[in-house]
Amino acid sequence: MNRPRQPNTTITLAHGGGGGAMKALIDDVFLGAFDGDGAREDAACTPLAELAARGDRLAFTSDSYVVTPLVFPGGDIGRLAVCGTVNDLATAGAVPLQLSCSVILEEGLEIALLRRIAQSMASAAREAGVRIVTGDTKVVPHGACDRIFVNTAGVGVVRKGVALSVAACRPGDAVLVSGPLGDHGAAILAARGDLALETTLQSDCAPLDGLVAALLDAVPGTRFIRDATRGGLATVLNEAAEASRIGIAVTETAIPVRDEVRGVCEILGLDPLYLANEGRMVVVVPPDRAEAALAALRAHPLGQEAAIIGACAAERPGRVVMDTAFGGRRIVDMLTGEQLPRIC
After folding, report:
1. What residues does each domain of the chain span?
2. Are 51 and 122 in contact (CB under 8 A)?
3. In whole angstroms, what is the distance from residue 67 CA to residue 77 CA?
4. CATH of the structural domain 174-331, one choice from 3.20.20.70, 3.90.650.10, 1.10.3730.10, 3.40.720.10
5. So what's the pLDDT on residue 195?
6. Residues 114, 115, 117, 118: is their CA dihedral positive or negative?
């Protein structure tokens, strides 16, 4: 269905007024991108039988996204929002099905940029096999928000027999990561241009539902999966150690980090263990399934550089330690404060 483009080039307060300007904006930018040719209802409705056929538990999550710049190497705020919510569902063991999209727009935002973001969301949703089925639009005066804020909520169904939990890790379990860490955080930092850093780094922003499905098919007894977003690997490991009341020991030389990311971190005094990721996950599996999990991850395009980085232990419950490249050992605490503001 071809929809006429509304005449404005920037967002005005009228676009949030609930009248013709808002309708024209939603029709043009959002329904046009999200294939929204269905009925205009206040809620999306899904038959319960369709959900029950896929699993035995409903998974529901919500997140809000702010990032500077809005467009960065490897993605933009729209792709980030879809991938982030899909990944929260997938790493809970759910098959993502439907998303909502709500936006807060600043007066003066370029409609061409908004259209690009909406189309990016639609593309990421198709990549993940989910549908954007409902949403909301609000406009605030210039200066009341940072151009655009995005909130996405997601619904999925957990497969029967899958029971992932941050409290399920056991002594002896193997700890894996699905690929190099810190790409997203380093790419965002370089894209801001404040420090004149030249790099070819791109964000790892990607939907992980296919990678999670491949892992669970190979290792249905997987204990725990979590995407390492804000706070990075270090925060995820500390959450698992505390909730499971076990210790976790990792080896620095086993943790994959690109040389460019290491370089950025060395220049700025950052630690790649705390950098945000948007397409990497941490996995804990029984010790006798570690190699099977590694093989399943590496067989998928998003997990080709997966690695076993450590193990859980009965000693030092609630504590994460790392054997360093220099032969020492250090405690890896949870992130305190913020390394990079407005990262996701």
Report:
1. 13-158, 174-331
2. no
3. 7
4. 3.90.650.10
5. 67
6. positive
**CA 142, CA 121: separation in Å to the nearest integer?**
24
For the whole model, what pTM was predicted? 0.94
- The residue behind tokens 């639609």 is 122
Mapped to the 3 state alphabet, what secondary structure does 3-65 carry? Answer: CCCCCCCECCHHHHCCCHHHHHHHHHHHHHHCCCCCCCCCCCCCCHHHHHCCCCEEEEEEEEE
**What's the CATH number for 13-158?**
3.30.1330.10
Residue 41, burial from CB neighbour count under 10 angstroms (0-12, 13-18, 19+): exposed
Positive or negative: CA dihedral 210, 211, 215, 216:
negative
Q: In this predicted model, what pLDDT tens digit does every residue of 208-260 receive, in sequence order?
A: 999 999 999 999 999 999 999 989 999 999 999 999 999 999 999 999 999 99
Question: What does the alpha-carbon distance between residue 82 and residue 129 come to, in Å, rounded to a whole number?
Answer: 11
Residue 328 burial (CB < 10 Å; 0-12/13-18/19+)? Answer: exposed
What 3-state DSSP class applies to 173?
A: coil
Residues 334 and 261: beta-carbon distance below 8 Å: no
